[in-house]
Amino acid sequence: MVFQDLPGGNYDLEVVDLINGCNSAQNLLIEEPLQPLSLDPLNLPVCPNEEALIVGASGGWDNYLFELIYPDNATVRSSTDGVFDGLNQNGIYVLRVRDERNCLQETSFELNTVIELQLMPSYSCLGNTIQNELRVQIPDNLNSDNWIFAIDSTDPSDFFTQRTWQNLTLESTF
Fold first, then answer.
1. Quick check: helix, strand or coil at residue 76?
2. Is the whole-model pTM more than 0.70?
3. Exposed, middle or buried by CB within 10 Å (0-12, 13-18, 19+), for 119?
4. CA 85, CA 151: separation in Å to the nearest integer?
């Protein structure tokens, strides 16, 4: 006989043999953590190779072991500090945490498509006029209307939508 989903506490277990009239009794203590094991993603990257995935856990029985299963289901990484970098595959990742008594929590998340841009610089002169150009080619399978660009800047006011820049100099910022 198996008793499942018992909350923590003291239990008196008695077993009686109905044929012979023998019985056995035992008191047992079932422990449970103060809080159930919980997986807490602290930093969930949106794009591959952008930043580290940082996760934490709470509750359960401490001494957490984190496991990350990549979308190819062949790459599995473990961590005791909950930090994973090098997330370089497209698709759904599975994240697990296990505590010292083997309790398990699991969640999944998806990373967006890896973007492989082609940069095509060209340099030319027309007399004494420099006519440099940098063109960004976005793969055909991506919607090119959803992108913004900047050169040498992370200031949002410097971003723009055209994919060709002309007459660039070393001082060019936008």
1. strand
2. no
3. exposed
4. 26
The span from the CA of 86 to the CA of 161, in Å, is 29
Q: How far apart are CA 71 and CA 51, in angstroms?
A: 17
**By the 8 A CB rule, do 16 and 23 touch?**
yes
Burial code of 149-173, b = ≥16 C-beta within 10 A, e = fewer? beeeeeeeeeeeeeeebeeeeeeee
Q: Measure the CA–CA gap between 62 and 40, rounded to whole angstroms.
A: 14
Q: Which two tokens stand for residue 71?
A: 């979308």
Kindly report, residue by residue over 67-121, the tens digit of the pLDDT.
999 999 999 999 999 999 888 888 899 999 999 999 999 999 888 755 666 666 6
Return the closest-CA partner of residue 97 out of 62, 126, 132. Answer: 62
Question: SS3 of 15, please?
Answer: strand
Phi, psi of 74 (to 5 degrees): -105, -25
Q: How far is CA 72 from the centre of its chain?
A: 14
Tell me the one-letter amino acid at 43: N
Which domains, and CATH codes, for the chain? 38-111 (2.60.40.1930), 118-166 (no CATH)
Nearest to 131 by CA among 101, 94, 164: 164
